[in-house]
Write a structure and sequence with these properties.
Elements: H1 2-22, E1 30-32, E2 44-50, H2 55-69, E3 75-81, H3 90-101, H4 105-117, H5 126-135, H6 140-147, H7 150-166, E4 173-176, E5 180-182, H8 188-206
Parallel strand pairs: 2-3
Antiparallel strand pairs: 1-5, 2-4, 4-5
Helix pairs in contact: 1-8, 3-7
Length: 209
């Protein structure tokens, strides 16, 4: 009896989730990206476009991080530090990919936000950045080498191309499977719910369970 009740409850939850996803409206809840960005077809990819200097991205991170840590197996998550045509955000983009190249994103991503928005450090300037890096126990010479590497430069170029292809006008921006940009509602909890609904929409479109 308990098994049937549990199964019935799970089916109702799935039906409700699917119905909620079906009620989403283009122009109100999401923007269609056309042509779509290239996404991994094996998993549903969710991408956050952000900028370290953005106060809204700083506020969003404590909501986003725990959500990203408990995604289901069929959903992948990645961050893309946005680059707009004026290149003002390029240093932050290069910083993120330098940390990624050094396997330090998990340890220092939130710390970068804290340094900028709480401690008011000017880590967009080389001297202050290298001082901050050294204070985190990182060899500045190794950091410089990663910063100027071909691999990091390539990732910066790709981020610029993705930002342009996505047609973004600001950050934080959440894109689901390269097709749908969630239109930011009143608060970040609602934005995460909307992303979950768009993930369900992609599942339904692909006939996935």
């Amino acid at each position: 009896m308990r098994t049937w009740r549990g199964l019935f409850g799970a089916m109702l939850a799935l039906l409700c989730f699917g119905a909620c996803a079906a009620e989403l409206q283009a122009g109100r809840d999401f923007r269609v990206i056309d042509p779509p960005l290239v996404a991994d077809s094996a998993r549903i990819e969710v991408t956050e476009f952000f900028w370290y200097g953005c106060p809204h991205c700083f506020d969003f991170e404590p909501v986003l991080a725990p959500w990203a840590a408990r995604l289901p197996p069929d959903v992948s998550f990645r961050r893309v530090p946005a680059v707009f045509p004026n290149d003002r955000w390029t240093p932050g983009t290069r910083l993120y990919y330098t940390l990624e190249a050094m396997n330090l994103v998990d340890a220092l991503h939130a710390e970068v936000f804290k340094a900028i928005h709480v401690e008011r450090k000017r880590i967009d300037e080389e001297k202050h950045l290298l001082d901050w890096v050294a204070g985190k126990g990182i060899d500045p010479a190794k950091f410089r080498a990663a910063w100027s590497s071909f691999g990091v430069s390539s990732r910066v170029r790709q981020a610029r191309e993705l930002t342009l292809a996505a047609g973004l006008t600001g950050v934080p921006a959440m894109v689901v499977h390269g097709r749908y940009q969630a239109i930011t509602p009143g608060n970040y909890g609602e934005l995460i719910t909307l992303v979950d609904q768009l993930v369900a929409r992609v599942r339904a479109e692909a006939g996935r369970k």
